[in-house]
Amino acid sequence: MNFLDFLTVPLFQKAFLGCFLSGAGLSLLGLVVINLQLTTVRFALMHVALLGAAVAMLLRIPPLFGALAGIVIASLLLGPAGDFIKIDTGVTGAVFMTGSLGLAFLLFHRADIRAMDAFALFTGSVLALEDGDLWAIGILTVVIWTVFIVFYREIQMVLYNPQLAESLGVPVRRIRDGLLLLSGLAIGISMRLVGALLVDAAILLPAIAALALSRSLRGALFLAAGFGVLSQIGGLTASMFWDIPSGAAITLTAVAVLVLANLGRRLTARKG
Prior knowledge:
Elements: H1 3-7, H2 10-25, H3 28-35, H4 39-58, H5 63-84, H6 89-110, H7 115-119, H8 131-150, H9 152-160, H10 162-167, H11 172-194, H12 199-213, H13 217-242, H14 246-271
Helix pairs in contact: 2-8, 2-13, 3-11, 3-12, 4-5, 4-6, 4-11, 5-6, 5-11, 8-11, 11-12, 12-13, 12-14, 13-14
């Protein structure tokens, strides 16, 4: 089967569309995670997803629904919780992470829930996407780009100098909380695409590669989107031709893109 033959199969058509949309949109939020130093937050949201899945199984509803609901709730609470107890949002994420993990294992024990069924959420496959998944990815991508376009100046100030932004009347906390919510939704969708353990490949690695080459937020946004699409489409294509797991292929492609971006930066610096 050649590449064009794969494109005639509805399963692969959905997978390619999902990869394109997620690469073009979700990767932008990696810039938020990096600039706001929210690396611990992404781990917290994954653990909250586990707790949400456990609660959903207790209520006899789909675990994925519970996981996504948990992520959304935690995303909305992280910022205000940090403000309330006067600690950094990243540190608040660590509290959420350990607390949600403890509660999840308590539910597994007390309610006789099969832990492995909940941990199954930590694996994902872009080949399992359904029409509803594509709509969710597409809508989130449009929302992300709309937010960055409409509030570009405000987001730029919040990411690079929140103190100055607040002194100029920019609603820093609202923008931060909104970006946290979008990041949480992106993490939830990425779990569906590549699995929770490989979320960084969809969100973080393209953004890191973009920051290695860009000199402005605008440039970083477009580069992150381009690298995200390249990583996901390239990884999916490689997985089809070499018969390897799509999540692993997307991750390794994202790593390769990051390495090449840094090599390109070094070569450019030497010539300069």
